[in-house]
Amino acid sequence: MEKLREILREGRRVGEEDPRRIVHAFKVGVALVLVSSFYHYQPFGPFTDYFGINAMWAVMTVVVVFEFSVGATLSKGLNRGVATFVAGGLALGAHQLASLSGRTIEPILLTTFVFVTAALATFVRFFPRVKATFDYGMLIFILTFSLISLSGFRDEEILDLVESRLSTVLVGGVSCILIAIFVCPVWAGQDLHSLLASNLETLSHFLQEFGDEYFEASEDGNIKEVEKRRRNLERYKSVLNSKSDEDALANFAKWEPPHGKFGFRHPWEQYLVVAALLRQCAHRIDALNSYASSDYQICKDIKKKLEEPFRRMSLESGKAMKEASTSLRKMMKSSSYDIHIISSQSACKALSTLLKSGILNDVEPLQMISLLTTVSLLTDIVNITEKISESVRELASAARFKNKMKSTEPTVSLKKSDSGSIGCATPINSRDGDHVVAILLSDDDHDDDTSSNNADDDSINEKTEDGEILIHTSCVHGVGMMPEYPLGVRILQI
Questions:
Q1: Which is nearest to 392 in space by CA: 320, 284, 285?
Q2: Which of 265-269, 291-295, 336-340 tops mean pLDDT?
Q3: For labelling, which of 6, 168, 215, 350 has a CA lying 20 to 30 Å from the CA of 296?
């Protein structure tokens, strides 16, 4: 009884994990019932009156071809159908050619044809592109060609054999494809899209919480809370092993017809580019996590001095990934993550300057190695985050995501005050999620620098006839309290 309860609990867990699995099981049952009706009732008269024992091919087609997603079903169904048709035609030609040589030579020729065809087809299966896309079709081609060629030697009704084989496979394949597409369809492309957005969010969660883990874990006396937080952070490990799922989903997605927001020739290959960068980031996060819990930790006083840029690097990188995840999930273009990337790079430079100031002179060698390795890994993560954001931007452009902006690029209107030292920034045509900035003009001393730098980069601002300066927010290179820029402004995030 205990074993039965365990099986029931496992079945419930699998069903709750993805309820579509239960629906898929019913869909396979419906397809088998539909195919069986061709054998029992012969609804199309002469087209199905010779099914007889050959009906097993239709049943076998349903069992083998019907997969969980539409793309996987189409891939196997089309592979099986085309392979059966081509192999049947070649087998018929081989039989006719061999029959012209007489009864003595005919079996030798048929055996030779089978050997050559099977050997060549098996060798072609090793080609990477064929292996990834047409492997199942090549397998069915070998099987069908061999069966029809060899059975045709003793069966003079080879045409009927070919026709029945093709028709049963056609009935089974079409039944699977129609049910997969029109009855609660599961799209591989949608699953790949959701998986990528989920992986981005998972890595984002780790990076946003890493500062608390690194600087506060040792101060937290509640061991259970620390362990719970650590297990929650280690969800990133699912990204490390996602390559096989991503490759399979991308391969199946290419077979699917346009559906929902995924149009014809959707850039599925770009999804794999983003996924590869995410795995690189996850590997560095895995190493970073191990060094964060290393036994060789620097003293709290030095750690406190490094905390602010350290936290900013991690937090801003996490926010950039969060923005990229939101952009991908909503299928809308966004440049918000650029602000966080620039901020994380600024924190990286600040941390580098701090380390060069001699703050680690009295640190033990092993502690210094642990710290510098942690800094190096976090710097790598900042750089990879920039690459991930760029690849997401390329994906959004290739997939024609909706533009988050309204009619024109948002700008801020900067009007000089009478004193010429302080300005007022107001957003124009702003969009949801924009960061509001206040821009303070520097003193008049910087007028010469401003004019010279304006000539270097006309894209940063535009001056209207009434003396008003328009600064594009997408060209503002910084967030938070930033250094003074060539335009003679300082930028504060509100």
A1: 320
A2: 265-269
A3: 350
Helix ranges (DSSP H) in 183-299: 188-216, 223-233, 237-240, 243-253, 268-292
* 39 C-beta neighbours (distance < 10 Å), count: 18
Q: How far is CA 183 from CA 175, 177, 389, 408, 492, in A?
A: 11, 10, 37, 42, 54
Rounded distance between C-alpha atoms, residue 339 and residue 309, angstroms: 16
Q: Quick check: helix, strand or coil at residue 411?
A: strand
Please give the structure tokens belonging to residue 323.
């923005």
Task: Return the higher-pLDDT residue of 107 and 68.
Answer: 68
Q: Nearest CA to 48 among 171, 222, 159, 155?
A: 171
3-state secondary structure of 424: strand
pTM of the model: 0.77
CB 316 within 8 A of CB 344: yes
pLDDT tens-digit map of 247-264: 999 999 999 999 888 988
Are 68 and 91 within 8 A, CB to CB? no
For the stretch 216-232, pLDDT in tens is 755 545 566 666 666 76
> Residue 415: what are its φ and ψ, rounded to 5°?
-115, 130
User: Looking at the DSSP assignment, which residues form a beta bridge with residue 427?
Assistant: 412
> Would you mind telling me the total number of residues written for the chain in this entry?
494
Q: Is 332 helix (H, G, I), strand (E, B) or coil?
A: strand
List residues bridging with 332 in a β-sheet: 402
Side-chain-side CA neighbours of 225 within 13 Å: the count stands at 9
Helix (H, G, I), strand (E, B) or coil at 87: helix
Distance CA 56, CA 420 (A): 88
Phi, psi (degrees; rounded to nearest 5) at 451: -65, -40
5 to 2, 12, 338, 396: CA distances (angstroms): 5, 10, 53, 48
Beta carbons of 186 and 179 less than 8 angstroms apart: no
Q: What's the CA gap between 155 and 169, in Å, rounded?
A: 20
Both tokens assigned to 450: 């401003």
**In a 3-state reduction of DSSP, which class is residue 428?**
strand
H helix runs in 331-436, sequence order: 336-356, 365-398
The SS3 assignment for 437 reads strand
Q: How confident is the model over 282-304, as a mean pLDDT?
A: 82
Nearest to 252 by CA among 60, 46, 78, 459: 78
DSSP per residue, 79-92: HHHHHHHHHHHHHH
The type of residue at 54 is N
Angle, CA 325 vertex, CA 320 and CA 329 arms, to 5°: 150
Which token pair is 38? 């061709």
